[in-house]
Design goal:
binds 3-methyl-2-oxobutanoic acid; 41% helix; eight-stranded parallel β-barrel; alpha/beta; binds zinc ion; 17 helices
Length: 501
């Protein structure tokens, strides 16, 4: 079967989603998981866009191995040099350069002629090729570009040294039939002289369908993001395109290198880091994607799974593990489980997570992988703490005024505060704000249960804003009020770290 390369742009186009910005440590965590997932190329960022983007790409290039690391650059010398500086430490690296080709973009946005756009594209592909062996070129807004001109650009950049030509549907405008036939035309013209890649946006909900049509017509690489996040309505969703190829291999006769059992974990990690929730009915990774509610369906499933199930939940990593850890499990079992889950943690991170695990095991009988992942994600990518929770005590109920008594460690000094609120979370948030003297506003507050049962670990995600700066925080605990306080303090620590920087 033909192998289709998966080019993941979660850290670049995905990060362009409103509210999805990630810090460097978070990006490294995602990049490591993308390698475990088996993607071929990680587009780690757009190095010229900001010093933070540059740093993230440089760190990923130096620390994450197992995939090609790509940096995005406009077809400009300064962009390409910056991308090269950022990716040069990666054992496998790529420069992805782009220039618009549609008349709409050339006339109204860039005010350059077609000839000039072609000249710049060719020149910059050659320049990128003088720095790296692996150059990708994208004619931006390709699907609204006149086809003969598009073909001319594609041929010219291949002759200039591009080994991949990416055909972006930048504004999500094309249709599966139209796109499939465009890719076939390009394939007929260029043969095997370069890999044809596709990059589809989801403005009309067709990004996955358009990418699949392209695969049927000769595309060899798909650009996509986890959970389909990205600019506006997002990009082609990685998990959907991959599971289409797996489930309908009889039809597509193509495969990817994705370890599908890592899909769910990757999706959850991204949600936890960005705070962007997946809609419950989202294909493959939505909470209801494998939940059968109708009586007729349930009856069929009990008799034979094939009646209503086209994918097995365990194929995307959804099955709850049978092996559970409990309060009698030791450090060794804990460390082994972390390794089996695919995490590489330093000694201190393991120790801190183990401490939390022991505390959790006192409160909760069985600890599942999802619980351990929640504990680990509090440790990985942790920033230096200005604020640390020492103690929280809450009074709440139908006949008392919700009150929170808080002890917080602020730069080594323990301070107290007692506050009332509309509810217990409100009271504890008021206490934290009073004692830290911070004036952040709460923009988002989300609670979810990580596993089932009344002793489940609850996870809270918050988003704060202070003085134009935003930060997300995450906290997990069997006590939802404590989880909420941890999430708030975690976000305040991130804001404090930014101020220090
Ligand atoms: O959507 C787009 O056209 C892009 C290019 C930079 C590939 O993201
Ligand atoms: Zn894009």
């Amino acid at each position: 079967m033909r192998k289709i390369k998966i080019f993941d742009t979660t850290l670049r186009d995905g990060e362009q989603s409103p509210g999805a910005s990630m810090n460097v440590e978070e990006k490294i965590q995602i990049a490591r998981q993308l390698v475990r997932l088996g993607v071929d190329v990680i587009e780690a960022g757009f190095p010229i866009a900001s010093p933070g983007d540059f740093d993230a790409v440089r760190r990923i290039a130096g620390e994450v191995q197992g995939a090609v690391i790509a940096g995005l650059a406009r077809a400009k010398e300064e962009d390409i040099k910056r991308a090269w500086e950022a990716i040069k430490e990666a054992p496998k690296r790529r420069i992805h350069t782009f220039h618009s080709t549609s008349d709409i973009h050339l006339k109204y946005q860039f005010r350059v002629s077609r000839e000039e756009a072609l000249r710049r594209s060719v020149e910059m592909v050659k320049f990128a090729g003088s720095l790296v062996d692996d150059v990708e070129f994208s004619p931006m807004d390709a699907t609204r570009t006149e086809v003969p001109y598009l073909l001319e650009v594609v041929e010219a950049v291949i002759n200039a040294g591009a080994s991949t030509v990416n055909i972006p549907d930048t504004v999500g405008y094309t249709t599966p039939d139209e796109f499939g036939s465009l890719i076939r035309t390009i394939k007929e013209r260029i043969g095997n002289s370069a890999v044809i890649s596709v990059h589809c946006h989801n403005d009309l909900g067709l990004a996955v369908a358009n990418s699949l049509a392209a695969i049927l017509n000769g595309a060899g690489q798909v650009e996509c993001t986890i959970n389909g996040i990205g600019e506006r309505a997002g990009n082609c969703s990685m998990e959907e395109v991959v599971m289409n190829l797996v489930t309908r291999k009889d039809f597509y006769k193509a495969r990817t290198g994705i370890r599908t059992k890592e899909i769910m974990k990757t999706s959850r990690l991204l949600t936890r880091i960005t705070g962007i929730q997946v809609q419950p009915n989202k294909a493959v990774v939505g909470a209801n994607a494998f939940a059968h509610e109708s009586g007729i369906h349930q009856d069929g499933l009990l008799k034979e799974k094939m009646t209503y199930e086209i994918m097995r939940p365990e194929d995307v990593g959804l099955k709850r593990t049978e092996l559970v850890l409990g309060k009698h499990s030791g450090r060794h079992a804990f460390r082994t489980r972390i390794k089996e889950l695919g995490y590489e943690l330093g000694h201190e991170e393991i120790e801190a997570a183990f401490e939390k695990f022991k505390r959790l095991a006192d409160q909760k009988k069985d600890i599942f992988d999802e619980d351990i992942e929640a504990l680990i994600s509090e440790e990985v990518g942790k920033i230096p703490e200005v604020y640390g929770i020492v103690d929280i005590s809450i009074t709440a109920g139908t006949s008392v005024r919700p009150t929170a008594a808080l002890k917080l460690n602020i730069r080594g000094k323990v301070v107290d505060s007692v506050e009332h609120g509309d509810g217990p979370v409100d009271a504890v948030y008021r206490a934290i704000a009073a004692v830290t003297k911070t004036k952040s506003t709460l923009q988002k507050f989300e609670v979810k249960s990580i596993t089932g049962g009344t002793d489940a670990l609850g996870e809270v995600l918050v988003s704060l804003e202070e003085g134009g700066k935003k930060a997300r925080g995450q906290g997990a605990d069997t006590d939802i009020i404590v989880a909420a306080a941890k999430a708030y303090v975690n976000a305040l620590n991130k804001l404090a770290a930014r101020k220090t920087r």
